Amino acid sequence: MFALVEKYPQFFASVGVHPDNREGLEASAEKLVQLAEHPKVVAIGETGLDYYRLEGDQEWQRERFRTHIRAANDCSKPLIIHTREAAADTLKIMREEQADKVGGVMHCFTETREVAEAALEMGFYISISGIVTFKNASQIKEVAKYVPLDRLLVETDSPYLAPVPYRGKTNEPGLVRHVAEEIAKLRGIDFEEIAVATTQNFFRLFSLAQPALP
Question: Which domains does the chain have, with CATH numbers?
Fold first, then answer.
């Protein structure tokens, strides 16, 4: 990953261990901070909680999440947070570990408007993926209309969740336009307004990232 971000000026990185990955060594806060010293690391994560795929005692997952928030606070870099079927515990740990000190983004958001409200109160951005283009994604469509424009991000979550009309195919960053177009339609505003706002939001949140020159 570092080799890629060093080669391409428009690439940036985050460092973390995904919530449902139990293989390999467990990252300490000190190790995450050390990795985050790389000049093109702009965030800590993806981190959070995922109760969808895993069964049994998930305390190890909660402790890992706490470690990542502490690392983010130690190095003053924002968090990229994943939550799936674990919203209550995710918000609880964010509050207990003072994630609001650094803020961040609720990545590939799939929760309710109430969860979005709680995250926004802690200074987080809400990132909408290709799910918003799916016909039956009424909950996400509601959130996409509700989130203040200056706290909204768009993403692909590639290679997953390709937006309509590419649903079921391999996703790629170039398809993020379809996400922005759907949100613009839902909000009744021009696509360019969404494009400009979400671009500005990205560079405001990930302040160490710099736009690549044409």
Answer: 1-102 (3.20.20.140), 131-208 (no CATH)
